[in-house]
Amino acid sequence: MKAMNISLPTGPFDWAPEILPRAEFERRLEITRAAMRIAGLGLLIVHGDGFDHGALSWVSGFTPKLGAAYALIPLEGEPGLIVSGSPGMKPSALRLSWIADMTVQRDLADDIRKWIEGHGGLKTGLYEGQAMAQAAYVAVLRGAGETLSDMTSVVDDLRRRKSACEIALIVQAGRSVEAALAALEQSLPRGRRHAIIAAERAAYAAGAQDVRVLTADRAGGAPRPLDDFDPVIMGSVPVAVAARVRGYWASAETVLGDDKTIPAREAKAILHALATTIDLSLTAEQSARWSLSWQGIGLSLEEAPQRNAPLRAGDVVCARLSLKSGSSGHIAWTAILAIDPKGARLLQTA
User: pTM of the full predicted structure?
Assistant: First the structure.
């Protein structure tokens, strides 16, 4: 599933205030600034690019398509954005964010220096410096003129708690995943390539911006991306699908053509039962046969909390059950769960 998010974003990414209102971003800005105060920061730079822009989109709504972008968050006053591209592209870029103060990148070090100096040279934090290209990271450090405080884990922690409108978008993305899975199951008898293309079309028709589909190329094999090999697959077919709607992902792993087997029935019963607990724990008997892990999901396919991290209200996770032993150990079933104060809520299951 990790490979599914490594591509430039496609589809419409204009900010839609009727879906994610300005008040939602003001809420995020408020809790970000509270964390900045605790860290003793006056300014925060949030980096994002085509590979990973979850935090950038969370604070600004902006999804970079032409290179890296930087949200500039002051403790007081309006935030700004530095974006890649030509000056002629700025009108189009402005439609992607609620932030009106947007600068097209010229000299990144100089752009950062001017912004920091314009806000009194306050102590500055940086999100995901380690994920930046080396030249860009050096330019930001040169512009800041100091060692920047790493705020990556802090911002990631803030993003964990999903609002009602975020959960609604994850549910919509889940419907696109379900449409893709239905098309896959119907089309696999005609060949793997035909089925993957049909699944992508079904997900887009259901409102997805981006779709990733992996299927095995043989019964019981591991899911793989599309290639020139186009077998007709009979029997149990492991598949993995991810889809994004308005920036928010849902994903699923399951086995098509395998609904009546004992493992499939067990997995589905366990995943539904997990929607009654907060800690997502298996019984001793289940743990002897199954391995359970979970990963946060939202504006990125992989968000905190990591496996075995304590869960808390507001988390949305993709729980993954897989068999512990045997040749079918890679076969998995998943469900997306929203953690509430009194338990979990099932948002989507394959």
Answer: 0.90
Give the type of residue at 45: I
Q: Is residue 8's pLDDT more than 60?
A: no
CATH topology assigned to domain 2-160: Creatine Amidinohydrolase; Chain A, domain 1 (3.40.350)
Q: Can the peptide bond before residue 305 be classed as cis, meaning omega within 30 degrees of 0?
A: yes
The whole-angstrom separation of Cα 120 and Cα 221 is: 59
The continuous run of DSSP H or E covering 322 comes out as strand 316-323
Kindly report each contact of residues 81-84 with a partner whose C-beta sits within 8 Å and lies 24 or more positions away, as own/partner.
Answer: 82/108, 82/111, 82/112, 82/115
Give the residue range(s) of CATH 3.40.350.10 domains in the chain: 2-160
The CA distance from 257 to 15, in Å, is 40
pLDDT digits (tens, 9 = 90+) for 33-56: 999 999 999 999 999 988 889 999
Contacts of 95 (CB under 8 A, 6+ apart): 14, 15
**Helix or strand holding residue 291 (H, E):** strand 290-296
Q: Where in the chain is the domain with CATH 3.90.230.10?
A: 164-349
Q: Which are the contacts of 260, defined by CB distance < 8 A and separation ≥ 6?
A: none
Higher pLDDT, 278 or 96: 96
Average pLDDT of span 119-146? 89
DSSP string for 126-174 = EE-GGGS-HHHHHHHHHHHTSPPEE-HHHHHHHHHS--HHHHHHHHHHH
Query: 164-349: what fold?
Result: Creatine Amidinohydrolase (3.90.230)
Average pLDDT over residues 314-340: 83
